[in-house]
């Protein structure tokens, strides 16, 4: 039987790996796991959440990062609506612009969180909607 067990990691292009590394650490609370150094220059990083359930890689590719500006290639899972509300509060404290919690096709989401290259990162609940409202 051929089986997949989830994603190993997602890789995003960035124009400035140092600037993006700082943003993803500060805003999404990701920890640096691996640095990719080529010819003595940092060209990429792998980041993970404290529980090691999500790995996001950033690779310095300015042309590709510019092409993804305005697109939302990643939706990070948040366990519950209550946890999503906590993320909204966290983003507000940081002064990070984002959309209001909205009903998605399945679950709830925070749209409109934009990284330094204009790439939208969405936070999405892993639970379906219930009678409760955001």
Describe the structure.
The protein has helices spanning 17-28, 62-68, 81-94, and strands at 10-14, 31-38, 41-48, 55-60, 74-78, 102-103, 108-114, 120-125. The strands form 2 sheets. A 4-stranded mixed sheet has the order 1-4-3-2. The protein has a 4-stranded mixed sheet with strand order 5-8-7-6. It has a single domain (10-125), classed as 2,3-Dihydroxybiphenyl 1,2-Dioxygenase, domain 1 (Roll). It has 134 residues and is α/β, with parallel strands linked by helices. It has 3 helices and 8 strands. Helices cover 25% and strands 35% of the residues.
What sequence of helices (H) and strands (E) makes up the elements?
EHEEEHEHEEE
The CATH superfamily is identified as 2,3-Dihydroxybiphenyl 1,2-Dioxygenase, domain 1
Work out the helicity level.
10-25%
Q: Uncertain segments of ≥5 residues (pLDDT<50)?
A: none
- Would you state the CATH class? Alpha Beta
The average pLDDT value, as a whole number, equals 93
Q: Structural class, from helix and strand content?
A: alpha/beta
Return the domain count: 1
Distinct helical segment count: 3
Largest sheet: 4 strands, mixed
Bin the strand percentage. 35-45%
Supply the CATH architecture. Roll
- Tell me the number of strands: 8
Strand order of the largest sheet: 1-4-3-2
Apparent shape: globular
Distance between the termini: 41 Å
The CATH topology corresponds to 2,3-Dihydroxybiphenyl 1,2-Dioxygenase, domain 1
Rg over CA atoms, rounded to whole Å, is: 16 Å
């Amino acid at each position: 039987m051929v089986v997949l067990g989830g994603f190993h990691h997602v890789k995003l292009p960035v124009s400035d790996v140092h600037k993006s590394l700082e943003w993803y650490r500060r805003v999404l609370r990701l920890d640096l796991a691996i640095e990719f150094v080529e010819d003595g220059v940092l060209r990429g990083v792998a980041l993970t959440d404290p529980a090691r359930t999500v790995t996001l890689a950033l690779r310095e590719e300015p042309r590709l990062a510019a092409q993804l500006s305005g697109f939302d290639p990643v939706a990070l899972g948040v366990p519950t609506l209550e946890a999503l509300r906590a993320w909204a509060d966290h983003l507000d404290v940081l002064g990070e612009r984002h959309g209001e919690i909205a009903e998605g096709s399945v679950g709830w989401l925070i749209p409109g969180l934009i990284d330094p290259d204009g790439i939208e990162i969405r936070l999405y609940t892993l639970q379906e909607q219930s009678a409760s409202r955001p």
